[in-house]
Design a protein that fits this description.
about 50% helix, 2 strands, two-stranded antiparallel sheet, 15 helices, mainly alpha, single chain
């Protein structure tokens, strides 16, 4: 948790954030979003209750917020806050839905987890409807063009990175955190996802080939001591950074003529999921396990999956037989 959050959060909020980070295993980003959402709500609540003289909303001090104040919150207050976020702050439906979720989680914590309030005012709080659309992704032809665009001094590393994105649907943070020991001898890969959750991903022929070719040229000397176990190494002999991977992907998207379409590393994750679903006849439940989603609803955006099917799903990716180009 950031030092700023520790300083600005009143005890009731700080305890909630600590619980979610240490016990629930929420990511630092999720914890920060909880803080910002509840900080806004507390400022709003202090304003409508007449408990602050500060006229600048952003400067309102929330240090006085406590359990006694939370006991006064009604579901009407919560809906009024969501309306305020829409009309006064210009929040989109997606942002308002996230704030609604944060309020539900917070008040459930107060009522069911630490039991400091008798009634949960957010229990029946409905979230704004958010229009669902299929995420942007590359076609099969685009994906092949992207792989074929790889060249230069780091071509084996870069080709391997793109191959893992396109075949395994990794998140950016998951790829950057991969260690040598995560690549296992049984053609599987250990991945640490959101909330420090571990999953096993099967490696198809394309992934195995790309990893083998990269390992032939992966630097072994002068690597920073703390990063020696990292799978992907930068030119500075450190674990490759998210920024470097993003730059690398952007470079090859441009080279393949795919720039200007709002594509990114996360869109390569969407591409892997879409290709497996569209071309591999993969059941949605298997796709959920491959992507590391917590619930099926998140995966259903790709629409309509047992352990034996997961390996078949990875092998069914049309890019699974695309081998690393031989060096001249």
């Amino acid at each position: 948790m950031k030092h700023k959050i520790l300083l600005e959060a009143p005890p009731i909020l700080r305890d909630f954030l600590t619980y979610n980070e240490t016990i629930k295993g929420k990511s630092a980003l999720s914890v920060e979003e909880y803080f910002l959402d509840l900080q806004t709500f507390f400022k709003y609540l202090l304003t409508i209750r007449g408990l602050t003289n500060e006229t600048d909303f952003e400067k309102i001090d929330i240090s006085s917020v406590d359990v006694a104040l939370m006991k006064t919150v009604t579901i009407s207050d919560l809906y009024a806050f969501i309306v305020y976020c829409k009309n006064e702050r210009g929040n989109s439906a997606a942002t308002r839905a996230r704030k609604t979720s944060t309020l539900r989680i917070f008040f459930k914590y107060l009522s069911a987890q630490i039991k400091v309030i008798d009634t949960n005012p957010a229990e029946l709080l409905d979230a704004p409807k958010v229009k669902q659309s299929l995420p942007k992704h590359l076609t099969l032809e685009d994906s092949l063009g992207l792989l074929n665009s790889v060249e230069g001094p780091n071509k084996e590393r870069d080709y391997c990175i793109l191959t893992l994105f396109l075949n395994c649907g990794l998140r950016l943070s998951e790829l950057c955190s991969l260690n040598l020991g995560d690549i296992r001898g049984d053609s599987t890969m250990r991945v640490i996802g959101k909330g420090n959750k571990e999953r096993i991903v099967y490696l198809n022929d394309a992934c195995i080939s790309a990893i083998e070719e990269y390992m032939k040229v992966r630097p072994n000397d002068s690597i920073i001591a703390t990063d020696r176990n990292a799978l992907f190494i930068s030119r500075n002999r450190r674990r490759i950074s998210k920024k470097t991977v993003q730059f690398t992907v952007k470079k090859y998207l441009e080279k393949a003529g795919l720039d200007g379409q709002g594509l990114s590393t996360h869109k390569l994750r969407h591409t892997a999921a879409t290709l497996m679903y569209q071309h591999g006849n993969v059941d949605i439940r298997v796709l959920k396990d491959i992507l590391g989603h917590s619930n099926l609803g998140t995966t259903q955006i790709y629409t309509h999956i047992s352990d034996n099917q997961i390996k078949n799903a990875i092998d069914s990716n049309p890019l699974s037989k695309v081998k690393t180009p031989k060096k001249d």
